[in-house]
Structures are given as C-alpha cells and as structure tokens.
Amino acid sequence: MSVAIPITKDSMEEALKKALSKEYNKPRRFKQSVEIIMSLSGIDLSKPDQRFTELVELPHSPHKDPPKICVFTEGSLIPEARSLGIDYITKDSLNSMAGKKKACRKTAQSYDFFIAEAPLMPVVGKVLGQFLGPKNKMPTPVPPASSISQIVERLRKSVRISVKSSLSVACKIGHEEMPIQQLLDNAEAVVSAVQRRLPHSAMIRFVGFKTTMGKIVKVFRGGKEA
Fold first, then answer.
1. N or C of the chain: less Cβ packing under 10 Å?
2. pTM for this one?
3. pLDDT tens digit string along 147-172?
C-alpha cells in the first residue's frame, strides 16, 4: 500500500512562485491579494465538533491596507482607540441600534474585526449577534480600562479561517508585492492552524495558491502539482 507524501514547504514554495508568474498571474492595474485554498477530506460537517472557525495570527501582515477594527466601549477605551486610529461605538450608540436592521447590517459589514469591553458582550450579542455571528465577527472581549494595543496589533496580522459548510478553507496570505518568503511563512502558519484543528481521520487533500484574478496552482498530497 502506498503512503501519501505530505505537502512540503518546498512544494508550496514552487506553487507560490508559479501562481505569481506571468503565466498564471497577468499584470493588473491594482495590487492583487495572494490567497491560499485548501481542500479537506475525512470531516463530517454534520458533527459540530468537526466544524471550526479560528483567527490565525500570521508572521507578516497579509493586508494591503490595515483591516478595519471597531471597539465597543462604555468610554474607558476611547482615548486608546483614538490613539490607535480605530473606531469605537459607545454603549449608548450600541443600544440605539437595537431593532434597526439596516444600521446593524452596515456596522457588521463595515469592519473586519471587533473588540468589546467584557461587560458589554451581552448587549453586543442582543443587538448585533444575528449580524455578527454568521460572519464569525463576534468581538474579542477585554476587561474594562485594559490596554487593547496588543490585541489590535495581533488583529492587524490575522486572518479568519472557517470550516462550516464545505470541505475547504480559503483566506488571504498577503499581496503580490510581498517577498516569497513572507508569503510562504504566512501560508505555513495557515496550514499548521488547519492541521491542528483537523480530526484524526481528516487530511488536507491539496493546497492551492492564486492571486485575486489569477489562476490557481494546486499541490496535492503526494507531491503532484496541477
């Protein structure tokens, strides 16, 4: 019986280089993102313990522009939010959105990540839970008056991975002007995060790379490239 060869760092590097080549990535008038796509097998999505969502902090920020972050606060975090250049929503403003679906939907769509003072989490859940939950955007809770600078720094280097409704994972790992080594470091971090969450019977079938408008280059378990 043959044994499948794991997807190696070298094979991923070659696939990344190919995905960024002129053959697979025609020049565009904008800076394209670089994405990783993984196909999985051996997961039963009907079992809640085999589905997962996770924020993965990458070694290098993958974002062309800083992700949009918003803080829910009763007031103590406003000065730091301003100094960090991120938005904030006060408790009164949050309560004023209750029942206003258009405003709630706009808030959920306007930000990539949220932070909230822990005592406000029940209010956030009540007002925005149905809009943030499906997008896996529920806030990171913090104690009132605590510093959020390290959390903001971490979120600015993070991507969200999710396995809920399909046997695949896809996320951004950078942009086409980043050095190959940085893209590779980020790709390895995502692959490692997925592998840690897979049940014993599951495996990664292939890892693929593509730019926003480019063709995908896949590396299959066993070393075959396509």
1. N
2. 0.86
3. 999 999 999 999 999 998 899 999 99
